[in-house]
Amino acid sequence: MLATDGSKHAHRAAEKTVELALQLGNVVITLFHVSPEISSRNSLIQANFDIRSLLEKEARLAIIKTELLFKQEKIPYNLAVGLGDPAEEIVKKAETEGYDLLIVGSRGLNKLQEFVIGSVSKKIVHVVKCPVMIIK
């Protein structure tokens, strides 16, 4: 599973994921994007209160480069989305689905939050049970 937020570090993690997938062959990668909150009430109304649809739309906008990379290399992937605290949602998804490996970037989009409460990757590595690869 590749946890991604569309940041520069997340894109480097996507590049490494592609590299590993090409070496291993016959793999399907889950791209997991977590929105900390619903972007706006108006967008929720426009989505007819279909939260999953709205989260998928926001995820696709955030990780457009990542999806393009996977498509160019013909690596099969699934998009999964979550809502809430990114570290908690990533751990929950990894544990529920039983992935062989979790790949994350070393830093995300929100530098202030990282400074105040610590990075998502740090939180994940201390809690999740599967192997974690953190890409700088």
How would you portray this structure in words?
Strands 1-2-3 form a three-stranded parallel β-sheet, sandwiched between helices. It is 52% helix and 18% strand. It has 136 residues and is of the alpha/beta class. The two termini are 17 Å apart.
Detail the topology: elements first, then pairings:
Blueprint: E1 2-3, H1 8-24, E2 29-35, H2 41-46, H3 51-62, H4 64-72, E3 77-83, H5 86-97, E4 102-105, H6 111-117, H7 120-127, E5 132-135
Parallel strand pairs: 1-2, 2-3, 4-5
Helix pairs in contact: 1-4, 5-7
**Main sheet, how many strands, which sense, barrel?**
3 strands, parallel
Structural class: alpha/beta
State the distance separating the first and last CA atoms.
Answer: 17 Å
Number of helices: 7
- The ordered H/E elements are EHEHHHEHEHHE
Radius of gyration: 15 Å
Number of strands: 5
Q: What portion of the residues fall into strands of 2 or more residues? A: 15-25%
Mean pLDDT: 86
What would you call the shape? globular
Query: Could you name the ranges where pLDDT drops below 50 across 5 or more consecutive residues?
Result: 113-118
Q: How are strands sequenced across the largest beta sheet?
A: 1-2-3
Percent range for helical residues?
40-55%
